[in-house]
Amino acid sequence: MQETIMIDMRERIIEAAITVAARWGFTQATTKEIAREAGCSEGIIYHYFTSKHELFLAVIRENAEEFFSQLKLEVNAGETAGERLERIIDFHFHYFTGKIHIFQILFGKTGDAIVPFPYVLKTIILPYQRFIERVIVQGIHSDEFHQLNSNVLSSSLLGMMQFNIIKLHFGVKDNTVDEIKNTVKYLIFKSLVNKKS
Amino acid sequence: MQETIMIDMRERIIEAAITVAARWGFTQATTKEIAREAGCSEGIIYHYFTSKHELFLAVIRENAEEFFSQLKLEVNAGETAGERLERIIDFHFHYFTGKIHIFQILFGKTGDAIVPFPYVLKTIILPYQRFIERVIVQGIHSDEFHQLNSNVLSSSLLGMMQFNIIKLHFGVKDNTVDEIKNTVKYLIFKSLVNKKS
Amino acid sequence: MQETIMIDMRERIIEAAITVAARWGFTQATTKEIAREAGCSEGIIYHYFTSKHELFLAVIRENAEEFFSQLKLEVNAGETAGERLERIIDFHFHYFTGKIHIFQILFGKTGDAIVPFPYVLKTIILPYQRFIERVIVQGIHSDEFHQLNSNVLSSSLLGMMQFNIIKLHFGVKDNTVDEIKNTVKYLIFKSLVNKKS
Amino acid sequence: MQETIMIDMRERIIEAAITVAARWGFTQATTKEIAREAGCSEGIIYHYFTSKHELFLAVIRENAEEFFSQLKLEVNAGETAGERLERIIDFHFHYFTGKIHIFQILFGKTGDAIVPFPYVLKTIILPYQRFIERVIVQGIHSDEFHQLNSNVLSSSLLGMMQFNIIKLHFGVKDNTVDEIKNTVKYLIFKSLVNKKS
DNA sequence: GATGAATGAGATTTCATTCAT
DNA sequence: CATGAATGAAATCTCATTCAT
User: Fold this and answer.
1) C156 — contact with chain D (CB < 8 Å)?
2) What are the pLDDT digits (tens) for C145-158?
3) Nearest-nucleotide field for B6 (CA, C1')
4) What is the DSSP string of B70-89?
5) What dotted CATH number matches A60-192?
6) Where does residue C2 rank: exposed (0-12), middle (13-18), buried (19+ CB within 10 A)?
7) Which pTM value belongs to this model?
8) Which nucleotide's C1' sits nearest to the alpha carbon of D27?
9) Backbone angles phi, psi at B145, to 5 degrees
10) Which of A121, A191, D120, D133 has CB 3.0 to 4.6 Å from D154, enough for a Cys bridge?
11) Could you state, in order of their start, the residue ranges of all structural domains in chain D?
């Protein structure tokens, strides 16, 4: 009857799966709960996905695609390595403080019987880290940045952003998003950037 | 029968619970599996703990106590704030690359139906972060460190250490533990330390 | 659109039902699978048949009719009881080594929640056995055959033909069809036929 | 409370499984129904068997063992091939008209999704047929029997016995067990036995 | 203390059948 | 006529917890 109810059931199931999984993880997300959240029967889930496992692989795949395409669009608008790195930080905080559900799914858990962490690490987190690393390497080559361990640096940047966002997500409001962003940027650029530039 | 086998069944159950939970999380750790790992019956678990939930609260509590007492012992041996911060980093990598099971339990998962993340955050992660923060604040007061946001800084340090350890734990050997430690220390001290000191 | 594709959807569903049911029985034959095999939607099945149960009753009824009409045509061409009995054996092996799926439907699946065995027994198997029995009785009356228990004899003939065909159907090629037929005929006629005839 | 209720749960589940499967086959035999028949909870089935499939494999294995050991005991008491063959027929009718459930499981269906017919054929029916065949071959070698196709003969004997028993099992009382046995024996021995012997 | 058989609630998955289009 | 999305009941299987021994 209502227009909103009529929109693509497959999409609604995926949205519901994210919402429910964000609470306690993939395994704890029951099909019953997902169906309730999506406002449909449990059976219909199996019309669109062959199993709960397939459903979550689809959730991850489709959200990862969206994340990376937005990330690249945003970051490539920067010209220097410094600008790009700053855009990465801005985008990360914008994305994960806005769409909090997806953050949970993509970065929040180290493993689950349904979607093992190694899979998430390989398909999402490491590609993201390496994307950041490439920006740092560019900066080093162009002499914009110091010769530092770009791999550990990019991993560290990701780690610090994540941890601060988790705190926010669980209601620990020690700082505003801007305060966090500024300190993170200071930390990174203080080490990386050549005095003159 | 044998004395060595008899020593503290309670302890053996806790150890087994850690081992099993390290694999896929608290919920996926079944009592059957824990009993098998501990070499006892399922029933006896309920003699020592009122429920699976209680068992894991005990696991967390007792490991947290051990972690914090070791941490303090190690860190307080440092005299200046700089020394103490360095000892924190050394201890963190030593502890979590060695006792990998506990790392998983304490820091690895953002939530679980059995042991909700907010509980872990409140009882373990935030106290740890605030312990680090106090060291930084000391350094600022003693003019050893710059006037920076100590809260974000300590959170960031925790986040970057964690992320690099997760990578190691899941077999991504981009760097040695020493390379990681050195870069993390450089990153932190470059921002914090006054030129003169 | 194409005429050839359109010809008798009902017939196509019945054919598909036989093929699918021959695999694992009536209950295991899902409407989804039948629809796939027939190249139509699941819904249309319910336009031609009120239920899956009705569909299989129709499958059995219509195939039984065809079988019996061919059987009678073939057998009645024989003049003596001996000739007729031989024609029954020839026809049975000819028909069921060709139409192996129908054999499975009519004789192979002895009972199922969808089409109970007593129904199959009453509507197909016993009428067939009694048809054979009547031929034997004729032979006895005409003094062509010995005075033997025609009921057990006809049942036995049916049983031995069935068992040998099942073996063939499941790939046990101990003998050729001709070897089987010859031995079965020898067995039956050795007992039945009067020395003189 | 009652003594009969206390006997081995595993055995009770197996007995119940046979009873229930005898009705509509393995697939139709639900764990709920088996539990009801055994007077226990559904869960306990999985304490003794890893799956419904395993349960039925155990049912088949254990009954087959019992059947073959009884068969051999009985048959080997016969001295000549003729005596042995007669004992096979007697035993078959005794066994399958008495323990009707097992007959259903072992010989009644050409296939089921849970226990595929090829498995039953290979592990039970063909070994049985070949056991009969060896007796016939012995008789041929000892010149007791005619030179006939022992394979088709043994298969046919099995087929005719089976078919007559199925009729009895489903209440078609055209003949008594003794009438059937006598006619089957006449049929077989008339063809096989040398005039003189 | 210790065992492990037994329970029962709940999870995933299947599928005949219906119904809006 | 024809489609296939949607439903809901039921089936298999899991597992924390209890309890007689």
Assistant:
1) yes
2) 999 999 999 999 99
3) E1
4) HHHHHHHT--SHHHHHHHHH
5) 1.10.357.10
6) exposed
7) 0.86
8) F11
9) -110, 160
10) D133
11) 60-192
